[in-house]
Amino acid sequence: MFSFGSGTNNARLKALDVINANIMIADANLNIIYMNEAVRSFLQEVEADLKKELPRFDMNSLVGSSIDIFHKNPGHQRTMLASLTKPYSATITVGHHAFDLNVTPLKNGGTTTGFVVEWADAKIRMENNDYRSQLIAIGRSQAVIEFTPEGEIVLANQNFLEATGYALSEIKGKSHRIFLPAGPAGDEEFEQLWSQLRQNKPHIGDILRVRKDGRQIFLNASYNPITDENGKLVKVVKFATDVSDRVHAVNKIGEALSQLADGDVSFSIDTPFAPTFEPLRASMNNAVKRLGETLVSVSRAADLIESGSRETSQSAQDLSKRTEQQAASLEETAAALEEITANVKNAAQRSEEARGATAQANSSASHSGRIVSEAVGAMARIESSSGQISNIIGVIDEIAFQTNLLALNAGVEAARAGEAGKGFAVVAQEVRELAQRSAQAAKEIKELIRKSSEEVQSGVKLVSETGEALQTIQEHILAVNDHMQAIANASREQSIGLSEVNTAVNQMDQMTQQNAAMVEQSTAASATLAQEAARLHALISAFALPVSAARAATVARPKTAAAPPPRAPAAPAAPARAPAPKRQPVVSGNTALKSDDWEEF
Question: Which residues fall within 8 angstroms of residue 70, CB to CB, at 6 or more apart?
Fold first, then answer.
């Protein structure tokens, strides 16, 4: 029986102040009447988190308060505590904290006089339970074996026994050395491993071990030293997974990669792998096969490129020569066009000068025509004057004839007069002679005038013909002038056209030279391409191609384009996803884990 307030019990309460247990006491009305120093310190550490969930919680006024401040549903706890007859344990969570509670009812006969509550942090216990669950889970999936610090076998789970082919009775108490290869190498490995473990250094990695039947197995293992609270090594636990299938697959793939590195693509991995790694073998075989087919296609393409490059290089060289010849011809053509242009310009200038001279000749012909017309008029006037002179000469001739006649009559009369008329007869004779000479002179003058008139008429005719000829010449000069004008215009246009042609030819010459330079570059590029194609062919020849593919590579080159690359292998179907585990409802607040009987505290 426990009675509060008595001296003995007060002494007991003082004794509770110095123990490490977290003790809280409530009376029968569930009012807190005592807390030892341990529980005060314990609750003060979590006071801030408790206030977030329990706003009425206050360490300063906790003694004397009802335990209802810890409850969200006080009625449930009061009902349960009223019927409590023996100690009760529960785990509750408040915020991020978990607490283990041990409630013991204080009895006085059949009456409950109070309750003693022991508080404990449930974190360590829950972590230990979690660690234990994890170890159980690991033991279900991995091989586990325990050793003493000296390397003697203590325990081994079924996975380890199945992996090594031993029974536990066959290996318990024996040295770990039985799993290592025989010989000095195994001895050295054993000593190094356990020297490291005794220094509390774990060992993790892939290891080679020997089964009971002598076969080798590969394990992915971790040797974990376990120490006590003082850091002393108490045992070594090894977790391992049999990775022999993986190592076998990796080794085979490594050998295949070595063959690939040596240029051999004529092989395939025929030994099946474990089902997990079989897609890897298929993928490797497909990769090697596709690579071989690709290299064969590349070899064919290299042959075609090399042949085409040689042909292109030869064609480029021929084109380069023809382009150089064309450039030289264009250069000569440009020079000839320059000379022709200069000659045409000179001819145009000469045509302009000839047109000016023709215009001047036309002006001179017009002036000569006017002079000829005046000469024709003067000749007409001369002819008229000659006619008048001829008339005057006729009068003189008649006068001479009359004079002669009078002189004859005078002579007759003088003869009749005899001596007296003898002197007169002499005069008459003289007059007669003068008249005869005058008549003769008039006759000669008349003849001269007649001839002169004929010459004048001939001159007038010639002058008229000259005028007509000059008129014709003027007309021809006008026509020539028109033609010279047309020739001058045509020469000018031809000069302009030839200048443009000369410019175009110069541009063509420059472009041809540029083309020649580009052809030289193309020739060099073709030669380089041919060299690289030969180099590529040499590189391809370093590979050992599949027999069928190599035979196909020696066939005549196809005329069509290269075949399209092979289709990539279909990706393996993804494994069916396991159904997601059902999520447990989240527990919040200070709800107890055993919700069926202890809801809150």
Answer: 54, 57, 590, 600, 601
- Taking CB atoms within 8 Å and a gap of at least 24, the contacts of 425-432 are 431/403, 431/406, 431/407, 432/403, 432/404, 432/407, 432/408
- What is the token pair recorded at 523? 């020739």
How many percent of the chain have pLDDT more than 90?
21
DSSP code at position 173: T
C-beta pairs of 106-110 under 8 Å, 24+ apart in sequence: 106/2, 106/25, 107/1, 108/1, 108/2, 108/3, 109/1
What pTM did the predictor assign? 0.44
Q: Which long-range contacts (CB under 8 A, 24 or more apart) does 119-126 make?
A: 119/22, 119/23, 119/24, 119/39, 119/42, 119/43, 120/22, 121/42, 121/97, 122/91, 122/98, 123/97, 123/98, 125/100, 126/91, 126/98
DSSP 273: -
Return the H-helix or E-strand segment holding 147: strand 143-147
Query: Please, are residues 251 and 277 in contact by the beta-carbon 8 Å criterion?
Result: no
Cβ distance 383 to 439 under 8 Å?
no
Show the tokens assigned to 388: 């008048």
Phi and psi torsions of 190, nearest 5°: -60, -45
The tokens describing 444, both together, are 């000669």
DSSP label at residue 72: S
What does residue 151 show for φ and ψ, rounded to 5 degrees? 95, 15
What does the pLDDT look like over 446-479, one tens digit per residue?
Answer: 788 878 777 877 877 787 788 788 778 878 888 8
- DSSP conformation letters of 183-248: SHHHHHHHHHHHHHHHTT--EEEEEEEE-TTS-EEEEEEEEEEEE-TTS-EEEEEEEEEE-HHHHH
CA atoms 210, 211, 216, 221: torsion sign: negative
Cα 223 to Cα 227: distance, rounded to the nearest angstrom? 13
What is the model's pLDDT at position 435? 81
263 DSSP assignment:
T
Burial class (CB in 10 A: 0-12, 13-18, 19+), 344: buried
Give the tokens for residue 530: 């041919």
* Mean pLDDT calculated for residue range 253-262: 90
Please give the pLDDT value at position 254: 92
H or E segment and range at residue 154? strand 153-156
Q: Is 245 within 8 Å of 273 (Cβ atoms)? A: yes
Closest CA to 117 of 103, 98, 100: 103
The predicted pLDDT at position 553 comes to 52
Helix, strand, coil abundance in the chain, percent, nearest 5: 65, 15, 20
List of E strands, 327-438: none
For the chain, what is the mean pLDDT?
80
What is d(CA 52, CA 416) in angstroms, rounded to the nearest whole number? 208
Contact predicate 74/96, CB 8 Å: no
DSSP secondary structure string, 311-325? HHHHHHHHHHHHHHH
The residue among 483, 487, 473 whose CA lies nearest residue 363 is 473
Q: Which residues of 552-566 are buried (b: 16+ CB within 10 A; e: fewer)?
A: ebeeeeeeeeeeeee
Give the contacts of 36 (CB within 8 A, at least 6 positions apart): 16, 17, 19, 21, 22, 23, 24
pLDDT of 303-325, one tens digit each? 888 788 788 878 877 887 887 78
If one compares 494 and 269, the residue with the highest pLDDT of the two is 269
Q: Which amino acid does the sequence have at 38?
A: A
Cα 419 from chain centre: 159
Distance CA 236, CA 150 (A): 9
